[in-house]
Amino acid sequence: MLDIKNLSASVDGKKILDGFSLKIKSGEVHAIMGPNGSGKSTLANVLTGKNGYEVEGQILYQGKDLLTLPIEERAQKGLFMAFQYPLEIPGVNTNNFLKTSLNTIRKGKGLKEIDSLDFLKLVKAKTKNLKIDEKILNRQLNVGFSGGEKKKNEILQMTILEPTLAILDETDSGLDIDAIKIVSDGVNSLRSKERSFLIITHYQRLLDYIKPDFVHVLINGKITKTGCSELALELDKIGYEKMGASTQVVV
Amino acid sequence: MMSLNFDAFQKANQSGSELDSIRIKNFNIFQKKGFPSKKEENWKYTDLKTILYNNLNKLELPNHENTSQYNSEWLLKNFEHNQIILVNGDFVSSTFSFEAKEKIKIKPLKTVLKDKKDFKKIRDYFTEQQNSLASLNHALVHDGIFLEIEDNYSFKKPLIIYNFFNKSSENKIINNKCFISLGKNSQLSLLEYYKAEDSIKYFNNTIHHYSIQKNSILKKFSIDNNLDNSYNYHLTNVKSYSNSIFENFLFSSGSSFVKNEIHCDLLESFSSCFINALIFLSKQQHHELKTNINHKHQHCKSSQLVKSILLDKSNGTYQGKIYVDKDAQKTNGYQLSKALILSENSTFNSKPELEIYADDVKCSHGSSTGNIDQNSIFYLMSRGLSKEQANKMLVEGFLNEAIETITEPNIQSLISKLFIDKINKTKFEINEH
Q1: Are B140 and B9 in contact (CB under 8 A)?
Q2: Is residue A251 part of a domain?
């Protein structure tokens, strides 16, 4: 599904990702852990298509060159990123935004647009499943939302848009246990053979709820170690610094 | 710039009253001063002299022909309302189908100007020398509206004043006035609606006077949305008495040039004034909103919210002044201007002014001018929206805050619809910064 080969990304001449490679197959859940400044968010941004990075290397998504696709086409082709810091958009109604978003993505997939009534049914069912207060639908998008509400809103969007590849950029940061449960329930309910996840996190805690197939350690812009979910536990014990000293790659 | 035959006008509009000499006096004042230019503080951002010189040559006085001709398609449908129709500034007709007619006194201003007794009621307004355009208006006013609403009467439906301009207004300078007064405990929702025939160029110099007596509410909305080639100066003077409310919403988006100047005097306690505006400009449009809220008495409130969008080579200005008299303790004054500049070639000027002589007041102002937030665009695009869709969504969201201030539901949905149409028709080719 996703094949990243020797990816480098710099901002203003400063290299952030440096020779990063990663392969994700359909149905797999990958976790990337790394200390601050290791390039985790840059990876998510480059995958999503954010401007401002000088990028080298290759990313194949479903066999196609991802880097040449505009941002919205990546989304229409099933790529989704849950933002670390979801933006507040004043004056934009959350429900209208969700509907517009779903319809552009459906259109991109060649599906018929969903009408307001069916959409309302769908979105109400999704909020209920995720135990999210329906009231957020009538509020301005993320405006005045608590940190937890913003992250839950990202997960709500993910479950509505049903992406093929979902990237969660530190979605667990700043969340309490109940909210982490909602996030992981959202992810687990979507897990399927056709869908893959890339979960970026600082902490092992989230991985208690979402069991990844692979855990990668990202240090200084490249993967220094790869293992199964036990690697996360090990990391939790010894910390990134010691892990960084070892450059041995286990695949 | 103008070829005004004042003598001929004077001859044709003899009233036999004091008005005749008032006209001469005011015309002389105008001739001495000329059109306002940027040398005057209030016209710093709007050099009217140059604007008129560059766009309207040899302005003439109207001949008042064909003033009954307008396109009936222009009347708003699916919306129950009373109406007054002005064509080229002249009074054409009025219908108050939904109201108790004995509570309403309506006259074409022309007949008031000719009647010595009636004229006395408005005589003093002809001595207010606010600027040279006002003097010109006093000298050359031909027609307009005189409307009095009695005590204890609330309108059942809104009143729309249609300001239509047909071909006969081409290259004319049109001077008219409206006098509207509300008695005690009365209510009126008023919509000013502007529409001109395609590409007709004219200059409309108009003065509105509103008097709002004790416990009365005047909600005034104005829609200038039809992109046309007109040049306008709209001066509004409001006198607010005890416990009255004046709400003014402007949708300023149509004409080539408009300067809206609003003076509101809060003369007695517990009166309030709300001025909110949505300014949406493109091409080479130049719109200015200048407000002057005078808190003359204690316990009054004023609030202003101006949201502007500027595209292409457009130019927008908001000059908002709050004046607080030494006797106006416990004043609550507020103003906020937010502008989004969507093109490198557009300009927005904002000049907030607070002049406070009382010591127990709450007054604040804020102003921000900026570009569309690229991170927000990225967020929306990552959810599948095209750049154009994302821009539209952000612009709509930005302006919604102003739309939400409209307290008359029918008019809110009307303006909302017009503004969504406007956004959908606009191409947002926005430069990144």
Answers
A1: yes
A2: no
For A86, which residue in chain B has the nearest alpha carbon?
Answer: B379
Domain of A211, CATH number, reads 3.40.50.300
Closest-CA distance of chain B to residue A230, Å? 33
Between chain A and chain B, the number of residue pairs with CB atoms below 8 A apart is 76
Q: Check CB contact under 8 Å for A89 and B383.
A: no
Q: What is the pTM of this model?
A: 0.89
Given CB atoms, is A76 within the 8 Å cutoff of chain B? yes
Whole-complex ipTM? 0.94
CA closest to B393 among chain A residues: A92
A26: in domain: yes
Domain that holds residue A140: 2-245
pLDDT at A206: 86
Q: In total, how many domains does chain A have?
A: 1
User: Which residues lie closer than 8 Å to A89 by C-beta, 6 or more apart?
Assistant: A97, A140, A141, A142, A143, B376, B379, B380, B393, B394, B397
Span B193-233, pLDDT tens digits? 999 988 899 999 999 999 999 999 999 999 998 878 999 99
Phi–psi pair at B142, nearest 5 degrees: -115, -40
B238 falls in which pLDDT band (50, 70, 90)? very high
Tokens 């350690």 locate to A217
Q: Do B382 and A157 touch (CB under 8 A)?
A: no
The reply to whether A250 falls in a domain is no
